[in-house]
Design a protein that fits this description.
The chain is of the alpha/beta class. Helix content is 34%, strand content 21%.
């Protein structure tokens, strides 16, 4: 068994290094005005299998960690008291902040695993989120993430706007579109998004909706209307497989996304499930080869 595992590891490393030589390029071949992607944050969708979260994402420059939710199904993933039952495994926010990749925490609030259920309960989830906020005031946080995702098919999206207005800032939400090249996405977003609300745009590459290059076009389209600091792309580090499931993206697939997002701030979904240590080592090495003088810094 050990021999088989070593052989598989050798094959993987050989493929990864070959990919780096093919995709990375040398410092002097890169245009001087090309800015590397700034990999600032890592999402985590809490579950029992990945609690507590662990990884080496700081090697990519990650310093902000986004637990997608604090409470789901009316049970808390964290050990602070908010008057709710806790999951069998839970973590301490202050201990989490000791990790180099979680120096800053954008705290996910109350949510549900099922999107339809979350949308139907969005106002109640906002009320539950206020309790979370009240009980974490003594913990220094970068801000909050309200985990009810929006797309143009949500007819009652104004309910999300109502919920957002009741919550303190800084606050972030996320949006997506099932269309490869969505028209009027900026108009749709502008029609309901409350002011001073940050937006994560899911690139749609992981679910097979669009290519990284197409995602970049949509991103810039939104940033033209709302500003570069207010719309941040989320790199989906997974790919679909048969049966409606997903696998981790291969390092070269993540690299293609990062190349498309040069000059942009990037958050990755999600670290504990899809960005293992070998993938991080490979991508970090590619980053050094491609951008050379640009060091990866945690911001």
């Amino acid at each position: 068994m050990l021999k088989i595992r070593l052989n598989k590891s050798t094959i993987f490393i050989t493929l990864a290094l070959s990919t780096l030589l093919f995709l990375g390029g040398c410092i002097h071949r890169l245009k001087a005005d090309v800015q590397p992607p700034q990999i600032e944050g890592m999402f985590w969708q809490p579950d029992l299998a990945t609690t507590p979260p662990s990884g080496n994402w700081d090697l990519l420059g990650v310093s902000t960690f986004v637990p997608q939710w604090s409470v789901v199904q009316s049970k808390s993933w964290f050990d602070h008291e908010i008057g709710l039952q806790k999951w069998d495994k839970n973590i301490n926010l202050q201990q989490l902040q000791q990790k180099p990749w979680a120096q800053h925490i954008l705290l996910g609030l109350a949510g549900e695993y099922d999107e339809k259920l979350a949308r139907s309960k969005v106002l109640q989830l906002a009320e539950n989120s206020k309790k979370i906020i009240d009980n974490t005031k003594l913990i220094p946080l970068k801000g909050y993430y309200f985990p009810v995702e929006a797309d143009p098919t949500w007819i009652c999206v104004n309910d999300l706007a109502k919920a957002i207005r009741t919550l303190p800032k800084p606050l972030w939400i996320s949006i997506y579109s099932g269309e490869q090249a969505p028209e009027h996405l900026d108009t749709w977003l502008k029609s309901w998004l409350p002011s001073r609300t940050g937006v994560f745009f899911q690139d749609g590459v992981g679910v097979g909706t669009r290519s990284p290059q197409q995602a970049r076009i949509v991103l810039e389209y939104l940033q033209k209307e709302f500003g570069k600091d207010n719309i941040i792309i989320v790199l989906e580090a997974f790919r679909p497989v048969k049966g409606g499931k997903f696998r981790s993206a291969y390092p070269w697939e993540v690299i293609e996304q990062l190349k498309a997002y040069e000059g942009q701030k990037v958050y990755i979904f999600d670290g504990p499930h899809y960005m293992n240590r070998m993938t991080v080592y490979t991508v970090a090495l590619w980053y050094k080869l491609r951008y050379g003088a640009h060091t990866i810094k945690a911001s």
